[in-house]
Amino acid sequence: MPLAYVQPEEAFEVRIQCTEEQIQRHCDAAPENDRRDFDDRGRLQVPVYHVYKNGNINNRMTYWYTFDEAEDENNEFDIRDLPTYDEDLRHEDVLGLAFYRGQVRIENNQLVHTPTVQPKAMQ
């Protein structure tokens, strides 16, 4: 029996701060993209999708998410790997705080940890 495609389920959305260069790249990427996608502070609302074990929609993973609507497994991330992870916080707050602190960024649908620079006294 053939399988039917099921649209990925959105877990939550996060707002990410964008530079003028990132805004321009977003607008140039597709004809439907424009500055109205951003709020008055240059923040873009980005959907975060659930990840499913073996792609089975009935087997949602608790801590794994993706920004990739096509659900490429190379773009998945574990929320517990973030430096802001606290089991008492909602997952959207953990991710939002990591963006706010500049500890992560999105690059080609992947969550990338930003290296932190330590003061010379600590090196």
Structure report:
There is one protein chain. This protein has one domain (10-122). 11% of the residues are buried. The protein contains two helices and six strands. It has 123 residues and is an alpha+beta fold. It has a four-stranded antiparallel beta sheet, covered by helices on one side.
User: If you compute it from the alpha carbons, what radius of gyration comes out, rounded to the nearest whole angstrom?
Assistant: 16 Å
* Shape, per Cα inertia axes: globular
Indicate the proportion of strand residues: 25-35%
Question: Biggest sheet: strands, sense, closure?
Answer: 4 strands, antiparallel
Number of strands: 6
Q: Count up the domains.
A: 1
Brief sketch in words of this structure:
The protein is an alpha+beta fold and 123 residues long. It contains two helices and six strands; from the N terminus they run E-H-E-E-E-H-E-E.
Notable features of this structure?
123 residues, alpha+beta, four-stranded antiparallel sheet, two-stranded antiparallel sheet, 2 helices, globular
Write the layout of secondary structure elements.
Elements: E1 10-17, H1 20-29, E2 43-52, E3 60-66, E4 76-78, H2 91-100, E5 104-107, E6 110-113
